[in-house]
Structure formats: C-alpha cells, structure tokens
Amino acid sequence: MYEICVYGAGSWGTAVANLLAKKKFNVCLCARDEKLVLRLRETHHNNKYLKDIHLSQNLVFDTPKNAQMGIFAVPVKYLRDFIEHFSIKVDAALSLSKGIEDETFLPPSGILFQTLGITKEQFAVLSGPNFALEVALELPTASVVASSNRNLAKKLQNMFNTHYFRVYTSSDYIGVEYLGALKNILAIACGISDGLNLGQNARAALITRGLAEILRTYKYFGGKSKTMLSLAGIGDIVLTATGNLSRNRILGLKLAQGLSIDEILNQLNGVPEGLNTVMAVFRLSQKYSIETPIINEVYNIIVNKKDPFESISILMNRPLKSE
Ligand SMILES: NC(=O)C1=CN([C@@H]2O[C@H](COP(=O)(O)OP(=O)(O)OC[C@H]3O[C@@H](n4cnc5c(N)ncnc54)[C@H](O)[C@@H]3O)[C@@H](O)[C@H]2O)C=CC1
Ligand SMILES: O=C(CO)COP(=O)(O)O
Question: Does 239 contact ligand 2 (Cβ within 6 A)?
C-alpha cells in the first residue's frame, strides 16, 4: 500500500502528483498502461500530456494500487469502471475530476462513495481555476479544498499549499463538485461564440446569463449559492470560458469551424468533460423543467448538429424578461 496514490496520468493527475512530490511527500502516480509506467520511470517525462515538464525524481510510478490517500484524476465517464477494474481501496479520497455521471447525475463523490465504500467524512474535492500546465510551471494559482470533514480539508490545505499554489478550504463539497462540472458547458458555449467571431459582448453575455442557468441547475443538486462566487465557481468559469488551454473551450472553437465531434476528439489532447455533462444536464433540465436556454442550444449544436447561428437567433429572440 502506498501513502498517496494519484490515479490517472493525464495532465492534471501528473501536475498534482508532481506538486506533492516536489514537496517531498511519498507519492505514486498510477497509470493504467504498464508501458506508460515503464516510460515514466525511465524518463520522468509525461510526453503526451505535460511534455516539457521534468517530473520530480521523488515521484514514483506504478499501475493502480491501494493507498492511504487516493487522489482521483480520472475523467468521470471512466471513474466507476476504473476503480472496480483495479479493485482500489483507500482510507480517504480526494477528487480532482470535473464532471457528472451521465445516467445517475452523480458527481465524483457519489461514485467514490459507492465504489470505495467510503463516507463523506473520508472525502474531499480540490477545484478552482487551475490549468495543469500553469501549475506545473509554478505560475501563481489559487484553489479550494472542500469537505464536510473540517480536519481533512485543513490537512489537505496544508499538504497542497506552496508559494505558487494557494489553497483555501470550504465545507460545500457538493457545490464545488457540481460547479466544476457545469462550468465546462459554458466554456463550450463561449468557444463556439468566439469561434464565430461574435465578439466580446456576446461572450460576457453568455457567461453572465449562463451563470443564471448554472445557479438554477446547481440549486437542484443542493449546492450553496455563495459557492458560485468562489474560486470553484466564478473563478473557474472565467478561466475556462476565456482561456485557450481549456479543452472544453477548444471543443467549442472547433465546433464553430464546422468540425465533427469525432474529428475534434481525435485532435484534442485530453477529455472535454463538458461533452458528457451537457448530455446529463439537458436531460435533467427537461425532466424537471429547469430553464436552461444556453445549455439547450449547446446540446442541440452537439447532438442535433444545429447551425450555431440559428442557436444565436433563438437565444436573442426569446420572450423579453427582467434580469
Ligand atoms: N487538465 C486540467 O487542467 C484540469 C483537469 N481537471 C479534471 O481532471 C480530470 C482528469 O483530467 P486530466 O488529468 O486533464 O486528463 P486528460 O484529459 O489530460 O487525460 C485523459 C485521462 O483519461 C484517462 N483515460 C482515458 N481513457 C480512459 C479509460 N477508458 N479509463 C480510464 N481512464 C481513461 C487517460 O489515461 C488520462 O489519464 C478531468 O475530470 C478534468 O476535468 C481538473 C482541473 C484541471
Ligand atoms: O478545469 C480546468 C481548469 O480549471 C480545465 O479545463 P478543461 O478541462 O476545459 O481543459
């Protein structure tokens, strides 16, 4: 059993494992692919996801094993199968993933409770405006650890905090998780708008009115309103809706160029979680009559191949209302 395992050697899992290893924690980065594990051991470079970053000599690599602290950086779509396949056992879990499970609408915490048999007292989530590459380059970054267990949140805050990575705590883990997932839909919407050169006014309007939709959806899940104003809320929305390191925003930019989803996924280096999240949220909003016009149009562009200009026209010509 390892002290700390980071599961998932994508860009964020690698950057987070490296941050902890540089702080001299005993940490193992766990990848599914044995060949990748061997290459990482030999080179201390993750060429696919963080190619110019030399990883700490203190970092060890393995296939998934049990750990005292399990840190999960696996896209939500694969998380349940990943844990079951490797029969992972941990004493406590930290989630880094930003998505919702399609059929169940569960955030990572719900999946981890079911698969690992842990309780909410053993769970925390780390989220915020955090592009993996910028953290790996030690650029100033702020983040939040949320848990209903105050001691666990404080412990993780101290574990992660460095001169370039400032960590806050929160008790609203549900709000932090759902905001991390929902913001990806707005990043896709803004990517589409910017890809069509609709201007900065349009982008600001999409972010602001999108926030109203996120608030309505997210209240349904039990997130606290004030978390919207946090690093995990508005902070991450601004970052991914405007920053070109976001895979979700790039998905939108490429949709605007007329590429198909398959073509885009082939070109993208990583998983745009918003693609699955928009499917789940669309079904949810239909089922419970939640008003989500922007989210509905993102869904229609992706699933029904609707012309984005038609979507803009629909959004601009909705019945007039107060803000
Ligand atoms: N990259 C970033 O800057 C940030 C990412 N996140 C979140 O972290 C989570 C992980 O993302 P990244 O590290 O960026 O990954 P990534 O998108 O860079 O890489 C894809 C990851 O998915 C794994 N994967 C692909 N197919 C799989 C399968 N069938 N079963 C299990 N795993 C599979 C790959 O091995 C790899 O670890 C996502 O939920 C993402 O939203 C959160 C904050 C920042
Ligand atoms: O969540 C992120 C930064 O906070 C990363 O966003 P993408 O998954 O869109 O790249």
Answer: yes
Q: What proportion of the chain, given as a percentage, has pLDDT over 90? A: 98
Claim to verify: residue 192 and residue 124 sit in the same structural domain? no
Q: Is 130 in the pocket of ligand 2 (CB under 6 A)?
A: yes
Which one of 35, 183, 224, 306 is the catalytic residue?
A: 183
Ligand nearest to the CA of 187: 2
| Residue 323 included in any domain | no
Shared domain for 139 and 94, answered yes or no, is: yes
Our answer on whether the CB atom of 80 is closer than 6 Å to any ligand 1 atom is no
Q: Could you tell me if residue 322 is inside a domain? A: no
Provide the pLDDT for residue 218: 87
Compute the distance from residue 11 Cα to the ligand 1 centre, in Å. Answer: 7
Domain identity same for 78 and 213: no
How many whole angstroms separate alpha carbon 111 and alpha carbon 35? 28
- 163 and 204 together in one domain: no
Domain that holds residue 84: 2-171
Same domain, 16 and 86: yes
Total-model pTM: 0.98
| Tens-digit pLDDT profile for residues 184-219 | 999 999 999 999 999 999 999 999 999 999 999 988
Q: Is residue 147 part of a domain?
A: yes
